[in-house]
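Session log. Operator J.P. requested a structure for one protein chain; no other inputs attached. Running the standard single-chain path with token output.
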Amino acid sequence: MIWTDRIRQVKIVLVVAAVVIAAASLVTSHFLVSDLKVEEQNKMRVWAEAMRSLNEADENTDLNLVLKVIDENNTIPVIVTDENGTVQVYRNVKLNAVNEADSIQKLANMSEQWKRNGRIVRIDLYNSAFIEVAYDESLMIKRLQTYPYVQLGVVLLFVIVAIFALLTSKKAEQNKVWVGLSKETAHQLGTPISSLMAWTEILRETYPDDTLIPEMDKDIKRLQLIADRFSKIGSLPEPVPTSLKEVVENVVEYMDRRTSRKVVIETLLPEKDITVRLNQSLFEWVIENLCKNAVDAMEGAGRITIRVMEWQHGAVVEVGDTGKGIKKKNLDDVFRPGFTTKKRGWGLGLSLARRIVEEYHNGRIYVKHSEVGVGTTFRIELKS
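Structure written below.
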């Protein structure tokens, strides 16, 4: 829980930092672009005045300064038209035209568009004539307008990569804990199981007719099975073709001996047995966990239904109960390690079941249906 809370806090910090950086970048860029637009607008007024001076000049007018102002505009696209809308001059405009007529038409269209956007300076000449200087935003302003969004994309990408790295490291740490705990548990169980087996042999030789010794043998074999399961959890078990009917029958036999008579376990098996590749002892563990959770949910009285069906990609096993059901707000958390609604429990059973099904058998397990006060059905999908 501590690690989960820390991950959640880091994600919140990263998202907030991304929002702050994006907002600051957008605001700064907005003011910068606004200032540059005003500056370009002033430049175009000066440039338009230079064009008027050029149009009204005679042979005695010194045009050095006028021509310098006109020639120094190398960044702002500009089109000059007369009172009839005929293009007179243009600068810094890229044209992809097939002929001169096409060029003139494209220039006229661009000029009209810029005028509609309010980027126009009108200069009155003598004899009621005038020219209109239409201009567009420079390439620098366009780049500055898109820069914050590019920066936002980079920041979001960084946040996504950082969160993914955190989640990956969390999962890797969980895997190490699972593997280490499983191997240590199997190791710790090995010695007392060996001792129990030896003591059982001594008891069998001393009291050959004692009816309790076979029952002790069953419990010892059960302990060996548990140790074997923990050992396989700590490694990568090899799946083999296995009968699902045999798996279900083994689980039902085990649960029948350890549950109240008030709990009825019903099996719905197909006429033709279904065989899939799986590790039998681990998969039986999954079904046992689901059945034990069902018994707890029913508080010792009710019906458990285990259904096996063919599926288009393999087989399906459903385990349903008539227990108290799962609240909708808890459906997303039932497989999370540590989550439990019991007064006593570690909240590891369903998490372990998901690990066995999804990581070791390349399958899927989820809550198919749950209704409070009615019951819950878990569905396991296995590929053949």
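Operator note: The chain has a mean pLDDT of 82.
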